[in-house]
Amino acid sequence: MATVNAVAVVGLDCVFPAAHGVEAYWDLLMRGGDAIGPLPEDRRGPGFDDTVQGGFVDTVTTFDNDFFTIAPREAAAMDPQQRLLLQCAWRALEDSGRAPSALAGSDAGVFVGVMGSEWAQLHMGDYARVTPQLGAGSSAGMTANRISYHLDLKGPSLAVDTACSSSLVAVHLAVNSLLSGECSTALAAGVNIVLTPALGMVYQQMGLKAPDGRCKPFSMDSDGIGRSDGVGVVVLRRLQDALDDHQRVYAVIRGTAVNQDGRSNGVSAPSRWSQQAVVAAAYRRAGVDADQVRFVEAHGTGTALGDIIECAALGEVHAVPRDEPCAIGSVKGNIGHTEGAAGIAGLIKTALALHHRIVPASRFATRENPQLRLAERGLSLLKAPLRLSAEEVVAGVSSFGMGGTNAHAGLASAPRMTVTGVRGAATAGAFTLSADTPEALRRNLTAQAEALARRPRGDAAPVCWTSNQVKTGLPYRAVFTARDTAELADTLRTAAADEHTLARVTDRALRPPAVAFLYPGQGCQEPGMTAALYRESVLYRRHLDDADDALRPHTGDSVRDLILADDPAIHHARWAQPALFAVAHALTRTLAELGVVPDAVLGHGTGELAAAVAAGMLTLPDAARLVAAHATAAHDLPDGGMLSVRATPQETAGILAAHPGLFLAAMDGPHDTVLSGTADVLRQAAADLAAHGLNTRRLPVPHAAQGSADTALAARIAALAGPVTATPARIALASARHGRMLRDEIPDTAYWADLAVQPVRFADALSALMTEAAPTCLVELGPAAHLLSLARQGDLPTGIRLLHPAPGRAATFTDLAETVGGLYLSGVEPCWDALYEPAHRRTERLAPYVFSGAHRFGQTAAAQPAAPDTTPRQESTGVSRPPHPGGPDTPAEGPDPALSAVIEAVVEVGAYAREQVNAEARLYEDLGFDSVMIMQLKNRIEQQLPQGADITVPQLLPALKSVGALAAFVRELTSTGGTV
Fold first, then answer.
1. 546 Cβ contact partners less than 8 Å away, ≥ 6 residues apart
2. Tell me, what DSSP letter sits at residue 62?
């Protein structure tokens, strides 16, 4: 398929009668369901009662206003069409395989088909209750603008009203905007909510209303239109862009056309010739012939005249020599006539049919109207589901407006996707999920678990990759590692049901993350360390190979091969340090490709060489020469070892003085001291220390580190390494050699050589790191969590996350994925693609976001109160999000009149529940205030001040950071007698 001038449908969401979501919609269509029923009780009124039949959505009054940071008063004033569209747009973007927040600031366009606003008819005529919120909330044009505003989309944003063809015309405009380069992503939508009997009365007077509220397209029983609710959103991209970004393509829009009846036999009467012309024009633009079109989703309202004219027009185009007739049907038989959303309902049905390779039967088709003469016109009514071939299939969608604006779209099945790379054994992935509150996180965990449990068991990696692209943009985060979908479903279900489990895997990153890498020195090596990770991770494999290549000219053999062979020789002095360096460097580079670059580094002993490479102070070749020189020099040292003592350096001073061959090797913590010496000296020292009640432990080090007086050893290391040129560090480096942060110093070769003979002041270096770099995460890059254990014993601030990506010989890709997930929980935004093989980077359908249904906004729009003593406050409409974290509303010394006045005004203007507003709440980010609400707030505060002080806007603006800041401004204003 040619990708030029082709547009892909990459995301879908909808809410139709008896079908909340795409899966429910498809199920309704495939089983031939009937969504028609009585008017919901909460919409009934004079002339609009339980005798009214139609297709009605039962969630019109529910809206998660907190999710979109919309004040309750504003939400109550919004047309339900705007509310439903916002939530559908979010879910459709998720379905496209992208987090909606990722499009913020982009040129994405929004095109909405909407046939007016019955909400406005109900409310804008009551002039005494008109407010700015109601004005914006009642505007049909705002249906598109709301989406652009709340998602921060900068492309075209417009609403289209061409009556019943509105949403397919919106698709036409979106396609052209994409192809012209005006936008790179487009949301095309349609919406219709039935709130008054007015249009139904019009249909009845025109003889178009079905008595039972059901459309019966192309049937002998056709007797008119049944009105229905509906909202649908599709996400469109240029086909080549979608393919390049590995997005799932439901269907391809090959061409669209729009025309007008002109001066026909009536402004509201359909024109056969114009319908025929628009279909033919769409096929020309699509580059297809009529005989290639396998089926058409027709307008099919079920009016006798409308069906006859439409079939005559389709017959003029499709009555050509062909192997089989063109099948036709209409979704209106299932859900009724959704008017402004009718075109998008048909488009989504067609895209799903092409995606699933089967076209649902058309309801009421069993009693085909013979007056339509379908067979002689090359048409057939879909009396049973039609299976589609595996080859490219072409389809059409028609939508015709009452005023004569006609639209048609030519669609085709998606091109076959080429899987890049070769799929190996199942590997772990990190499944991410985010939400706006802890309760929402639990709700969505349950939804994802249920959706995954319905899938056939398979690799979790593609599902995890999709979640990383889609489910990562909200404040409360959760992450889980798994290798298959069944394991993942069980894990999510357990977390949703158990608060303690959920607490371990969730977090809210309230401040920017700062990551520090810790690099261990000799003593924590073990045979086979990271061998499993090497086999499973292409990234780690490449970087360990690079480290091995850098070391081999100086070590004479392969460190990598020694590790993979599970060889105990790794404990020998000649190999221990090079092996640890290679592992640490490979892990550093692996995490860097995963988007994790440290803000600070700290190495213990010769671990400082790997830290220096990470900081950009040493090159890999120079560091490899230094490591090899240290190893060679250590290999020639006499046998000995190291002794860890649970004591302070002061407590060991006497033992050091009593044993001349005993040296202070490291000060790892307030009560963690390491001594070094020959085997005999260590035995004697251990006995003396035990006699003083001090615990000791031998470390797996085969030689004794020498004291600072051993200048010969340092000189030999420097000679073996040769000249080394260091450069200024690009990131903060804590020196365990000095016990402080390195400033602008550029260490020379002697500094690096002295690492073998100078005591390691790890505790002081860690303290400096924590004070100056203030990390939120500590990550140890070695086979044992030795340095993390030392850090844990120190006085770490609360909330520090300790991570270990390669725990010894058992380390696998799962451990690496868990570390990346832990960093994500702390606020890091990883480069998720690098965690997965190319074959796993494909979009899988995840359960859409489940919004809260706790808030209900009825038919009565909230008015803005004129004064606090005359207008009742709107009560809270359900469970609200927790207040913004912070202190109490009033200071400790007693009630604060200024703060109380500001909170009261905020509650009145926004109609918030009192418990949602405290001193720490931010007016814009947490409470959803805009310029209109700020002016209303200003007026309310002025009314509540005892002396009626006037506040100017320039005075007010700097105080709008939070409720508390505004209260401080008011407090100062009142203390100065009304002037600032």
1. 585, 586, 589, 620
2. B
Q: What angle do CA 636, 642, 643 make, to 5 degrees?
A: 165
| Per-residue model confidence as pLDDT tens digits over 335-393 | 999 999 999 999 999 999 999 999 999 999 999 999 999 999 999 999 999 999 999 99
- Secondary structure element (H or E) that encloses residue 159, with its range: strand 157-160
Residues in contact with 223: Cβ distance below 8 Å, sequence separation at least 6, in sequence order: 210, 211, 216, 302, 304
Alpha-carbon Rg of the chain, whole angstroms? 35
Q: Is the dihedral of CA 429, 434, 439, 440 positive or negative?
A: negative
Distance CA 775, CA 534 (A): 29
Taking residue 49's Cβ as centre, other Cβ atoms within 10 Å add up to 13
Spatial strand order of the sheet with 515-519 comes to 740-741, 732-735, 600-603, 515-519, 777-780, 801-803
Residue 196, token pair as written in the block: 């008054």
- Which amino acid, residue 548? D
CA distance 572 to 561: 15
Locus of tokens 């699509």:
286
Q: What is the per-residue pLDDT for 949? A: 61
For residue 12, what pLDDT is reported? 97
- Determine which of 5-19, 98-112, 741-755 has the lowest per-residue pLDDT on average: 741-755
Q: What whole-number percentage of the chain has pLDDT above 90?
A: 72
Four-residue CA torsion sign, 233, 238, 239, 240:
negative
Residue 892, pLDDT above cutoff 50? no
Token duo for residue 912: 């918030």
**Exposed (0-12), middle (13-18) or buried (19+): which is 311, by Cβ within 10 Å?**
buried
CA atoms within 13 A on the CB side of 534: 22
Answer positive or negative: Cα dihedral of 856, 471, 440, 507: negative
Find how far residue 475's CA is from the centre of its chain. 10
Amino acid at 218: F
Residue in this structure with the two tokens 């005989």, named with its chain if needed: 291
Q: Which helix (H) or strand (E) element contains residue 496?
A: helix 485-497
pLDDT 10s digits, 602-647: 999 999 999 999 999 999 999 999 999 999 988 877 777 888 899 8
Instruction: Check: CB of residue 548 under 8 Å from CB of residue 575.
Output: no
